[in-house]
Structure formats: C-alpha cells, structure tokens
Amino acid sequence: MKSAAFDYVRPGTLEQALQILSERAEGARVLAGGQSLAPALNLRLAAPELLVDIGGLAQFRYIEEGADALRIGALTRHVDVERSEIVARRCPLLSRAIAHVAHPAIRNRGTLGGSLALADPAAELPACMLALDAVIHVAGPGGERRIAARDFFQGVFETALRPGEVLTGVEIGGLGPDRTYGFAELSRRRGDFAIVGLALAARRSSTALSDVRLAFFGVADRPVLARAAASALGAGDMSAARAALATDLKPVSDAQASSAMRLHLAGVLLERAFNETLEASA
Ligand SMILES: Cc1cc2nc3c(=O)[nH]c(=O)nc-3n(C[C@H](O)[C@H](O)[C@H](O)COP(=O)(O)OP(=O)(O)OC[C@H]3O[C@@H](n4cnc5c(N)ncnc54)[C@H](O)[C@@H]3O)c2cc1C
Known about the structure:
This protein is an alpha+beta fold and about 280 residues long. It contains twelve helices and 14 strands. It has three domains: about 5-55, 2-Layer Sandwich (Uridine Diphospho-n-acetylenolpyruvylglucosamine Reductase, domain 2), CATH 3.30.43; about 60-170, Uridine Diphospho-n-acetylenolpyruvylglucosamine Reductase, domain 3; about 180-280, Enolase-like, domain 1 (2-Layer Sandwich). It is about 35% helix and about 25% strand. The termini are far apart.
C-alpha cells in the first residue's frame, strides 16, 4: 500500500519549522526518523496534508553531560544513544533499554524525540523517562515549555504536546555514583514492543535502596509508576513489593496476554530488575 499524497517541507531552522506548523497546524505532521510515521502513512493510518521534516535540524542531535545531569537532543538517534560512552557511564538504564527498541535498521534512523512524541504505551523510552524523572523540553508558538515526564504521557499515542509544538530534548537530573538501575522486558521476539516491561531507577546506600522508581510499560494506556511496590522495595521486602503490584497496576488484557498474566509477569520482571541492581553493585 502507498501513502496518500502529501506536501513535504524540510525547514532549515526551528523557527521556520514552528512558523510552518503554526500556519498549517491542523493538516501538518512533524517527521523525524520516520520509523513509525512512514509505516503509518503507508498503511493509511495517517494522512497529513504536509510533512514538516525536522531531520535537518542538526543542533538537536546531541548528548551532553553536566555535573549531575544528562541532556539529550530530540533528534539524537537511537543508535547514538546505544553507542554513547557518556550514556553508558552516566545513565546505563538508557543503554540497557535502547537495545530493546526495535531492530538495528530502525535504531539507525529512529530518534529519541520521535519515540517520546509517539507515546506508544508499550515502548521502552517513555518508561525510562518516567523512571528517571526526566524533564521534556518543547518549543512552540507560545515559547518554550518544560514538562515532567509524569505529566507528558497522557494516553495511547497522547502527550502533553500542543498543536504546533516540537519536542526539542530531554534533561535527566539527579545523576551520581549512588544511582542504580534495572531493566527487564518480556516480548514475543527480540525487538518487538513489550508485553510487559520495567525500568527501575533508585539510589543505593550501603545495602538499601532509596528513591525507588518503578516505571512499568505495556500494562496500561501509558507508562505507570508502581508507588506501593517501590516503597516496599525501599524497605527491602521483595515479597511485599510483588504483592503491592496488585494495588499499583490494573493491567490491560489483549490478544497477547490477559490482565492476570501481565500482573504475574510484572512480578517476575520486578525481581529480575532488582537482581540487576544487586549485580551492578557487587
Ligand atoms: C518493526 C518495528 C518495530 C518497532 N519496535 C519498537 C520497539 O520495540 N520499541 C519502541 O519503542 N519502538 C518500536 N518501534 C517504533 C520506532 O522505533 C519508534 O517509534 C521510532 O523510532 C520513533 O522515532 P522516529 O524518529 O522514527 O519518529 P517518526 O516516525 O518520525 O515520528 C513518530 C511520531 O512522533 C512525531 N514526532 C517525531 N519527532 C517529533 C518531535 N521532535 N516533536 C514532535 N513530534 C515529533 C511524529 O509527528 C509522529 O507522530 C518499532 C517500529 C517498527 C517499524
């Protein structure tokens, strides 16, 4: 199948992109790596009148480290994150998770901003941003906004982005040597979207975890923080943490897995991700 006809523009600056988007807000769609949008066009799940290709805005392809923060531009490709020594050293959760995003050919073109703006509830990177308490930067006709990841993902393919806005990057703060991470995912085949997945971020002080954040994906219409389980894990009680998942999560049922199966898998993944934090500190 082929896409419906559309106009195409490749602005040279963010200002031009925002100008075009504000003029054609209803019929225009941002194009980044095209790894989700191009298939959607070809399947005629989307039929925008105009594609605004922001792929030429090279200033948004960067990975920068600060004293306790990491900043990544929206046009940074998955392969850049995967191969980044800075990410591996400062925020290895992202290095772990990115290897589960699709396949190498898709990671060569797909971008961080595209994955976050798409907001697939079974995607790895939105959950990582939630676990990391990241701040998402957007620019639009009204200026720049900074949106906490917990407020950004609002439903299946729904975000806090307003018409005409472009996601420009993310900032991950609070990094340091006491940070520890775990990541676990179950999918039918490597590279598929998750049936259930978990991104875990915490602080480690001697033997205990604190500031535990458990972001599950594939269980609801958006990534979900399991707060009761995180609290039990901080108290060092894994069986209470597993039991608390029944309070935190009301998983969806679909052709891939029932709600009860997803809840069971969430507990299995919790143990795996927790064990990873132990191995990292051994
Ligand atoms: C076979 C296959 C398997 C896949 N498996 C996975 C997987 O396991 N996990 C996973 O997470 N993803 C998976 N994907 C999806 C894909 O990896 C990502 O959705 C893609 O990389 C998103 O980035 P992109 O730059 O290609 O976005 P695009 O396709 O260009 O855009 C995606 C959406 O985001 C919008 N958008 C893009 N960038 C911006 C921006 N900066 N500001 C505002 N809006 C923007 C676009 O308008 C569009 O609606 C898979 C895709 C395929 C084809």
